[in-house]
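Schema walkthrough. Field components (list of strings):
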Amino acid sequence: MKIAVLVKQVPGADSPLPIQSNQNWVDEGAVAFIMNESDNYALEEALQIRESMGEGEVVAVSLGPDRIQKVIREALAKGADRAIHIQMDTEGVIDPLVTASLFAQALKEENFDLIFTGLQSDDLGMGQTGIILGEMLGMATASLAMATELGDGKIKVKRELEAGWFQWVSLTLPASVSIQSGLNTPRYPSLKGIMGAKRKELKVVTPNAIDATQSLEKVYLPKSEKQTVMIEGSADQIVEKLVETFRNEIKVL
Amino acid sequence: MSEREVLDLDVLFVGAGPASLAGAIHLKRLLSKSGTEASVAVLEKASEIGAHSLSGAIVDPRALRELFPDFPDTDLPFEAEVSEEHLYYLTENKKIPFPFVPPSMSHHHCFVTSLGKLTRWLGNKCENEGVDIFCGFAGTKLLYEGEQVVGVRTGDRGIDKNGEKKPQFEPGADIRAKVVILGEGTRGSLTKNLIDRHELMQGCNPQVWAVGVKELWQMPSGTVPPGYVAHTMGFPLGQAIFGGAFLYGMQNDIWDLGLVVGLDYQNPGVDSHHELQRLKNHPWIRSLLSAGKMIAYGAKSLPEGGWYSIPKLSVGGAMLIGDSAGFMNGQRLKGIHLAMKSGMLAAETTAEALATGKFSESDLADYDSRIASSWIRDELWKVRNFHQGFDRGLFGGLANAGIGLFTGGRGWGIKNRLSSEAGHKKMQKGVKKNRYQDLQFDGTYLFDKVTDVYYSATAHEEDQMPHLKIRDQDVCVSKCTEEYGNPCEKFCPANVYEMLPDGDGQRLQINFSNCVHCKTCDIMDPYQIIDWVPPEGGDGPVWVNL
Amino acid sequence: MMDVLIVLEDNNGKIHRMGLESIAAGQRFSNEMGLTAGALVLGGNADGLADQASAYQLGEVLKVNDALLESYSADGYSEAVKQIIDQENPTYVLFGHTYQVRDYVPRLSAKMNKPFLVDNIAIRVENGQPIFTKQMFNAKLSADVEANSSGPFLVSFQSAAFSMDAVAAGSASIRESTVQLDIAMIRTKSEPPFQEEAGGVDLTSADVIVSIGRGIGKEENIPLAVELSKALGGELAASRPVVDSGWLPSAHQIGSSGQSVSPKLYLALGISGAIQHVVGMKGSKNIVTINKDPDAPIFEISDYGVVGDILEIIPKLTEAIQALKN
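Field assembly_structure (string):
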């Protein structure tokens, strides 16, 4: 059982996000990076599958410049068996068709049974790479897995749907599944894990460039052209105006 | 995974600050030269190196040059060489330059530096030397065999706010080491225990601290000269509170503005965060900053006691380095070079100990001797009474410092050693003048504490017990309110402590999640009932370039 | 023949609300660009959906009935929509950003090697070309995205980015079309969907959130807010001080150490607007604030503000809303 887990290094939830003066991207020099949250859950799910099967290989794969080695080593410290670093400068690269193609280049020959990705990255939030990769490699796909069950050459996935609904889907292998946060409890790396990470294989590959089909024009702080409408009067008058606003302006009643 | 992990190492440094990292690099090189195999690791409670590092800073390159003699200055991780320096006395509206800068306070040939950047750089070099750096692990207990330190236990992970084990509970690991070197920084928690247990402060002046609070301001392109240095005294602290401000020009048009406030003031209402906001009201500061945007905030205490407040530095199996030991030159406002050198000297003692296989107290006392005959001692000896002079107020302190220049550091020119008292004891009871009556936070230039805390990017696992242990909370809601007016609300720069109404009385709420690990509360609480212990590993600020 | 094809989704026999929102988006977009717009419904039996869709101002409604589309599958739906796109050759294909769309449209994008511009909160036209705006970094920043290839372009819209009330009614003809699907290419088998007791509180998919801050005063007042949230059909949330005081579990917390939300309506009651809270909700489509402090920073980011006593207003508001419903 060969499982690839795609991990991405992204700015942490509390990291400053200063925008470059040309608005092309954020100033990465001032950013505090971490492993993408849902990728952490994806990694844990893969490790648990390997453990419950008593055999198999979990390979951490990541795309980006040198700084991403930190999350790769974190994945190795947590228990991934080996890792692949697809090295390139990813600033300004937002097209999931491009990133998936780059992963496909690096992973094609390996014939993974399973590819796990986080449901989306906390920086770009495109939510597509894992599914596109599945299509490119001829795999069945499912998104937003809240639970997985392996058996009989298939994987069953509990898909999250709208408003508290769920659906079990059975997929033939090989399959690429995107994982929702919260489906398991990610482990902490142990000290021995951290020491051992240095001795595990970390293959660095340089991909062939691919043309983008969509690109980032600029990033900016969300516009707040708020003209606050103050509602005044007695409590009863205020309530009346609020109900009217909810009904006619905001349309929630 | 519920079994306690046990790891056997040769040398463990606690705290990935400049002292430990320089020490680890130096040790690995010494071992490599002598052909000795030894495992060396560094334990760091932050999620990554540099996340808990905060300083001004102006670095004297002396230690870095010793460690990396072949590196040109351009390869060293500085912001810029000090290009101009100013010393001002501030009144509320005016800025009066000092007629000259005394050479011992000069920062010539020193470098404006971000400590976060420096430690990350050192961390890289350290890993290249084969040192294991364990980030996200807090050292919470020293391991002993008799009176010999034999290792460090890390904190448990996965305990909820009621003290119950969560599903991902993992007991802390026991790291056994022949030598444990504590470089935890200011007011280290293991250091505090070591000092108490072995009475290492016997015969010393009590340590005295200050707290530094700072904000980084992003300015428009081309408006900040990197290497600009200004220090000020006077406003806003006035004559009776030790301290002063610093303003450094960093790269990328960032102004680094900070205020150092001595933690030995008398007025229990003093609030270092508020003082920093008052400082920004000064027209000169306002003219520099108002076109920019505040991008980061942080605070950290610093040891000011000087040479006579440095404890005995070694016991069987353990040594103290850096700010944990108190190596800071208060007059020059520099400690990073001393920290690094102390780490390197501890490395030398350690290398010898590993060669002989002996780690007893008398073996490791070699470190104390090395310190005593090093340039650390030479430098600190000259300013050994610096802080103590300020017991007589600002001008007394300056006079004492000035006389000290000519008398090799004697207190008031005559006394070899001025005595001093612990800072928290100086706090006076009773309500004092409210220094912040006219202070208004507008949220765009002057920020309230809660807003500034947001810019320290600090976060803690919410579901854990507070890491600020208060031995008797009854004191907080009764005695302390009457006697001191709950100074914790004021001296904490991160809004951790809040007195809230509770029925007819009040209760203490501990917003531990805001904690920036400055240790001020452990230092300044007048009853000394607050114990700062490390929270779960990985928690705390995530400073990038502070 | 349509330039803009709007793909609608079945929600228990009715057009999914987000599909209606994408019709609103599509109508506006095609007017601005001078293009024709049509809708696509597909399923085992999409007749009912087709009838519903024909009541809107569209060029035409395309209907595809196929037994292999009775049960949703990523393989089936991506292949079916691809074939329709090949047949009809629209330049833009619009979707609501539903869970289903997230599941199959990336496959469609890969099959066609055409970009899927996702989760947009706005589109504007500049020099005859569309610029798509999406949120990044959990809505802390906005981003303008452009397509670099030739069409067709796959585009999805965030919930409530467009209002379904803005949909223009009309009368559209229904045309049936067919696709060729092979059961062998469908590699997944779905069981019927089911509902589960919400283990946690998922505020991120709520359209209405009633959020309380320190101004609620004490734990005993919280039921007032609960009643209001029920009346509005929304979820209850809180700022940090409420959770810290132990009055609500942390699952309800919104802000930098809680959840980030952008609902249609965020009703902030007794919340001052500390930045730690604001970063978790300022992307909300409509922010209504009630606070007795006129200087509370939250007013600056609010669409509607009331300076008043929440303890007085909340019960009256709840009553008035309940009366409306009866």
